[in-house]
UniProtKB/TrEMBL annotation:
<keyword id="KW-0963">Cytoplasm</keyword>
<dbReference type="Pfam" id="PF03162">
    <property type="entry name" value="Y_phosphatase2"/>
</dbReference>
<comment type="similarity">
    <text>Belongs to the protein-tyrosine phosphatase family. Atypical dual-specificity phosphatase Siw14-like subfamily.</text>
</comment>
<dbReference type="GO" id="GO:0005737">
    <property type="term" value="C:cytoplasm"/>
</dbReference>
<keyword id="KW-0378">Hydrolase</keyword>
<feature type="transmembrane region" description="Helical">
    <location>
        <begin position="212"/>
        <end position="232"/>
    </location>
</feature>
<feature type="domain" description="Tyrosine-protein phosphatase">
    <location>
        <begin position="43"/>
        <end position="190"/>
    </location>
</feature>
<protein>
    <recommendedName>
        <fullName>diphosphoinositol-polyphosphate diphosphatase</fullName>
        <ecNumber>3.6.1.52</ecNumber>
    </recommendedName>
</protein>
<keyword id="KW-1133">Transmembrane helix</keyword>
<dbReference type="GO" id="GO:0016791">
    <property type="term" value="F:phosphatase activity"/>
</dbReference>
<dbReference type="InterPro" id="IPR020422">
    <property type="entry name" value="TYR_PHOSPHATASE_DUAL_dom"/>
</dbReference>
<dbReference type="InterPro" id="IPR029021">
    <property type="entry name" value="Prot-tyrosine_phosphatase-like"/>
</dbReference>
<keyword id="KW-0472">Membrane</keyword>
<feature type="domain" description="Tyrosine specific protein phosphatases">
    <location>
        <begin position="115"/>
        <end position="146"/>
    </location>
</feature>
<dbReference type="InterPro" id="IPR000387">
    <property type="entry name" value="Tyr_Pase_dom"/>
</dbReference>
<keyword id="KW-0812">Transmembrane</keyword>
<dbReference type="InterPro" id="IPR016130">
    <property type="entry name" value="Tyr_Pase_AS"/>
</dbReference>
Amino acid sequence: MRREVSSGQSSLRSKSSVASLGTESSWSKEAIEVTVESGEPINFGTVVPGVYRSSYPQEADYPFIKKLGLKTIVTLVDKAFPETFLPFMETNGIKHCHIVMEGTKKQTIPVKTMSTILEVIHDKRNHPLLIHCNQGRHRTGCVVAITRKLQNWKSDRILEEYKSYAHPKIRDGDVEYISAFQVTDLQHLGLVPLSETAAAAIHAVHPRPRPIRLYAVAALIILVFITLWTSVPPHQRHLHERAPLGL
C-alpha cells in the first residue's frame, strides 16, 4: 500500500554505518566503515550519491537531514507519525511517500510491494531521497539489497552490506529472500540501475546544456558578414555581383 503526502514522519539514533562504494575486487569486511556523526539517524548511510538510508528519523536528527537537501522521504513502516515529522517535511518542501511493508521476520516481501518501492527510488525526479524503516536494518536492508542486485553487485558483497547494517539482528529470512530474489521479476519496470558515482548522478539529473557557444559563433559570423556587406556602396555591390569570371 502506497500513500503520498506533501510532508513527513519519525525514529531512533546512535551509531551510523556507511557502506563504502569500492570496486568489486576491493570489497571486503574492511570496506564497511562505521562512523559516528552528531545528528545522524541510526544506521544512516549513502546508497549512492543522492539516495540515503537510515532508521526512523528523530527530531534531533532533523538539522542533519535538512543539510541533505532532500526532495523525498520514503517510509516503509505503518505507525503513527511523530508530531513534528510531517511539519518538518512540509516546512522543508520534502515529499513524503509512505509505502507500507510488513515486517520481514515472519513473511517475505511481495514482489508488487518491492516493485512500488524501487520505482520511487529509481525515479531521479525524487532525488535526493531518504528511505527508512524503524531501525534501518531489515526492511530498508532488503530494499537496498535488491537495488544492489539491479546494479549487478556480487551476492557476497550484497549480503556483507546487509549484515553490516542488520548486525546484531541478522535475519535468516532476509538472507534467504535476498539470495533467492530474481531481478527478472522486475524487468517489466524498465528500471535503470542507480549510478554509484557522483558525477554520473549529477549528469543524470542535470543533462548537459545545448552547445550555446557554437550557436553564438555562428551568429557572430553572420553578423560580421552582414556588417561588411552593408558597408559596401550599392554600385560596388553591383560590380561584385556581375564581375566576369577569371578577371
